[in-house]
Specification:
Elements (H helix, E strand, L loop, with lengths): L1 E4 L6 H5 L1 H6 L4 E4 L29 H4 L9 H12 L8 H10 L4 E5 L5 H9 L8 H14 L1 H4 L4
Parallel strand pairs: 1-2, 2-3
Length: 157
Amino acid sequence: TVQIIFNPFRQRPADQFFEEAACRDVGVIVRVPLASGLLAGAFDADTEFPEGDHRAGEGGAGSRGGETFAGVPFDAGVAAADDLREHVPDGMTMAQFTLRWILDHDAVTTVIPGSMTPEHVRENAAAADLDPLSNQTHGAVRDVYERHLYDQVHHRW
């Protein structure tokens, strides 16, 4: 197996890696699926992280290539998450939408999201039982990625 960052903010693996992994019978474990909470809908542009939180001061994470916020700058990630919200189907949380989007990729074996509460764990697990997202929704996710993040992160693994 290979652990790799993959989510609506980091789509390069689907373009270049997944087909090769499938050909070689390599399992894909997705890490940082919720982009440190950005793809769970947990933050907005006014969010301030408490002192000692690893996300504090990470507004430029993408410029350094770190894993916090899946390596995207915080402000760009907030804007992209805001644009994604309109595509989340009724009855689905933003985190479930993100996890369902990831699981819709056949090469993905499993996803390891972080959770803060038992309710988050239940919601995250329930994403596997949701219907796959439509091709139109997948296209909309790609459009948001290309509009907000592609130039900043698509060259990164």
